[in-house]
Amino acid sequence: SRDVTFDEGGMWNWSSKSQKEPIVTSNGYEEENEQETEHVDLTPDEPETSNRLQRQRRLPARLQDCVLGNDNDPSNEEIINFALFADCEPLNFEEASGDENWIKAMDEEINAIEKNKTWELTELPADKKPIGMKWVYKTKYKPSGEIDRFKARLVAKGYKQKP
């Protein structure tokens, strides 16, 4: 897809000295490439080796002072924190009902609802559907990292608060 012209009659000048020439790569950046010639004496019992040099890749000048890395890779600190705190809070009532701390937190929430008269239990009319309820569990920590308390909230499922 590129227009290229070849000088088929030209020859390589083997007597010229090594020079640095800018090479434009496919991504548009210039890189310096040193062409070196090296005289190697080959003996019959040594295998033939290639004199071909590998091109050195360099960052563009604008990126020389940058630290490159993959931001998607989690750091060691993130992995350790995930391992420490991944299993702390129950996801449903069945998990929470097996721990005395969460049972106490749920009892405190029910007592607060009754004391504040937040909700009132009534008979459900025949043509109405009940409101779904869900427990939300959260462990509160002190600034030192120790557990401060276990907090449980009973919330209605699928409803948004009005702004």
UniProtKB/TrEMBL annotation:
All residue ranges annotated as the Reverse transcriptase Ty1/copia-type domain in the record: 116-162
Pfam families tied to this protein: RVT_2 (PF07727)
Chain residue ranges for the region called Disordered: 1-57
Name of the protein: Reverse transcriptase Ty1/copia-type domain-containing protein
Organism: Trifolium pratense (Red clover)
